[in-house]
Amino acid sequence: MPSQTHLDTLLPSVSPSEHSQSQPCLNTHIGQLPLDSYIFNASGPLCTSEEELIRLAGSASAAVMTKSCTILPREGNAEPRYQALPLGSIQSMGLPNLGYQAYLEMLPRLKKAGNKPIVVSVSGFSVADNVTMVKAFQSSCADLIEVNFSCPNIEGKPQLGYDFEQTEQALEAICQLGDKPIGLKLPPYFDFSHFITMADIIKKFPVSFITCINSVGNTLVIDAETETAIIKPKGGFGGLCGDYIKPIGLANVRAFRQLLPDNIDIIGVGGIKTGTDAFEYLLAGASAVQVATCFEKEGVECFDRIAQELQSLMAAKQYSSIAAVKGKLKVI
Ligand code: RRO
Fold it and tell me: Region annotation Disordered: residue ranges (predicted)?
């Protein structure tokens, strides 16, 4: 077998994704569901309309993830509700979506367009809403159902994931509705007692995966010149996203990986825009990562770029697979 260096001189110049034989493999899985890559879109930007979802189906995203849906269609909050920031963004979109029935009806077309896993996100305003939607998607061609327990942007609706009693009641209701794997999108936690309480609740139910983290809710960015908050909804309070929140996302993935059994996968999200960011989440224990702010800024090209960067980094470190790195964070 020739050495890698020798091989490189023999092979034509190809991009990392084409150079598959010698590149690390990014195949992974969420529960029993195999994914061809470790990177896909987060429920959030550019995944609300059929056109946007079809674009994702044709991209290098490992899956097509939908915007969180509600029972009825919603326009969302008043504008301005999204502002890019130097290191990320602040937003209070307010769950704009087409209503769950539109996504139900669209799913077969998305499947046909991409022939790849579809993850639906549901975000009901009550347990009854979530039961209705989860039940409906249990009989659809969706592969995974992510239930959003952490939207920070609806006035008068606290984030479910911060109320442990209600979280348990909701899980009791939604986990017994069918065989499709259920996951939870969690808010960021900041105290070990909260990581432990939440992990203990999750362990009581057949939860297949958790997604950590949603945006850091109810932050405030002020423009000193105009002396106003920079977004309108909720008097300016909104979810912080992007680079600012990566250390919080990494900590949540790491803490839950240490507290949950291996059969509950963790999807990392928060500030992933390079292969190195994706690698850090892998060390922390993520089985896959989702990209939101960077996808919003760069478009679908980000998925292949980040995958190639991750492959190059893993190759340089002589890691051949996702499994070889997952959760292998060293302590000093
Ligand atoms: O639509 C939103 O305002 C929104 C949702 Br559903 C969510 O889960 N997280 C977020 O930061 N924004």
Answer: 1-23
